[in-house]
Amino acid sequence: MHDNNIFLKNGSRIAIIGGGPAGSFFAHFASRYAKEKGIDVSLTIFDRKKFCLKGQQGCNMCAGVISENLLHKLEEEEISIDPYCIQRKIDAYCFHTQDDRVFLRHPVPGHMPKIITVFRGNGPKFSSHEGNVSFDDFLLSNAVKQGAKVICETVKELKLFSGKGDPVKVVFGDGISKGEFEADLVAGAFGVNTGMMEKVGRMNFGYKPPKTVRTCQCEILLSREYIEKTFGNSIFVFALGMKELKFASITPKKDYITVNLVGRQDLTRNNVLDFISHPVVKKLMPKEWKLPKDFCLCIANIPVTYARRPYSDRIVILGDASISRSYKSGIESAFTMARLSADTAFQHGISARAFMEGYFTPAKRVLARDNVYGIFMLKINDYLSSQRLIANNHVKMIKSTKDTKTANLLNEILWNMLTGNVTYKEIFYKVLNFRFIARIVSKDIIALTEKKINDMKAWRRQVFRISSVSGKKGLPAMDKRKFPRYPWEWDQPSLKICLQDCNTRFDVTIHDYSREGISLRTKSAQPFREGQIIVLQGIVPKEPHTAKRIVAHLLKKENFIIKRRTKGTEQIIGLCALL
């Protein structure tokens, strides 16, 4: 590994771009390893953001949950988090479905978990607390105590010279504060929410940023007493069947709760409003509570893949902009990668080959391979959580005192999935327990079968007869069975209607539907009348699958009779399928 390498030596200058956890941890380890090797290096951290400020100016856009594993690692490094940073100590997770909930506890009986919540910046924009409670600022101050210098300016450009022994030029600041800094090593700890990824990508040494998805987070002010009474020391995780959400949680702080949403695709402010308006979430809020017009909201990116070639001669990229654990434990991943990359720089050199063999290849073994298991486990969890009946059934199983072995294992799996206490691989092999799978699957099948039987019984009670529209011979028969009606929840398909034996078509949208009928909105001035025969035409949507199946079923019926209609600027006509 040492062939043709470049090494740090006395007087070497290290530039760290980004003062968040990854940058602060790298400075911590660089300082420690330099002392162990007996060489004197200078550490300079560049970050325009000031974490001592409130609101988005100081926030690093994160739910702010510090895992038990990370706390142990910080203790080993003799980094003790100041009490003023700790917002709340967490001892449980509450798994909340649409109809029920269960509190998940640490799998080891009697063990009190060490999980805390913090603010990454100095609290929400409108918070009234005094002093500095920022976790990121605490870590940065720890790096400064170890000799790091902080320059509060934005890095504009990195310049690589042609010679292998030449330093990297860091261009920073604007106007009179503009300057240049020559560094023997540049550590990129800038995350995925800045423009640095694109700047580094243009340096043409092969770096390709990770793919990201946009998440939403907001801080909601509630009284300390209400938070203690309603949420206590538990993080609430929700399975509400909201198709656009992959993960939804509420994290209690002192005077605030943090709503954190991760979507299957990019999320917006509207997704936050929809979640807060959900009946289950509204029940957790104070009576007659309304979301204030001004509240602290941020939309941030998180990585869903890892970067390609996050290293070159004298350059190493770490943290979210390089490789991290999928959807979980971002700060702990930053700690691990900072230690690994700093160790490589001081023990094996700062060439591209050294970083590839000593940092990135081991990092992929630790995180990237585990993320393969994680993606598989998360997809299974997404599906099961989206199925209302199955999610409720799993809650009942955890609460059950009849089969404690299955209940305890299910509790352990969910606890580890939510906390990130163990690797995804370990969780995967826990699930591959034949007895556990047999119990879970059999009980899910029984629950689904019971629901199907109950639905059939309810349907039979509602069937009253099938008759013709009138006693006149030749008129088509109409299905008069009563079916439950459901509101249309998906994007509107392209549908048109026309009267029988008429070529004029009218655009319509779906209001609600059932197995044998449909209600349509139409802006047409056409005076539709009850008893008229309607032909339904349109295009079956490609996705989602449920909408595709429903529209295909209705188009196959083709002919409908107008059973009811409403008057107004936008008519709604109720159609019943003809037999």
How does this model look, in words?
This protein is of the alpha+beta class and 579 residues long. It is built from 14 helices and 28 strands. Strands 6-5-14-15-16-13-17 form a 7-stranded mixed β-sheet, with helices on both faces. The chain has a 6-stranded mixed β-sheet with strand order 8-2-1-12-19-18, covered by helices on one side. A hairpin with a 6-residue loop joins strand 10 and strand 11 (179-183). Mean pLDDT is 87; it is low at 462-481.
Describe the protein's topology.
Layout lengths: L12 E5 L3 H17 L4 E5 L18 E2 L1 H9 L11 E3 L1 E6 L3 E4 L10 E3 L17 H11 L3 E3 L3 E5 L8 E5 L6 E5 L1 E4 L7 H6 L10 E10 L2 H7 L3 E6 L5 E8 L3 E8 L5 H9 L1 H6 L11 E8 L7 E2 L2 E3 L12 H18 L4 H35 L1 H12 L4 H16 L4 H8 L2 H29 L4 E2 L8 E2 L7 E2 L7 E5 L6 E8 L3 E6 L10 E6 L6 H13 L1 E8 L4 E7 L2
Parallel strand pairs: 1-2, 1-12, 2-8, 5-14, 12-19
Antiparallel strand pairs: 3-7, 4-7, 5-6, 9-10, 10-11, 13-16, 13-17, 14-15, 15-16, 18-19, 20-21, 22-24, 23-24, 23-26, 24-25, 25-28, 26-27, 27-28
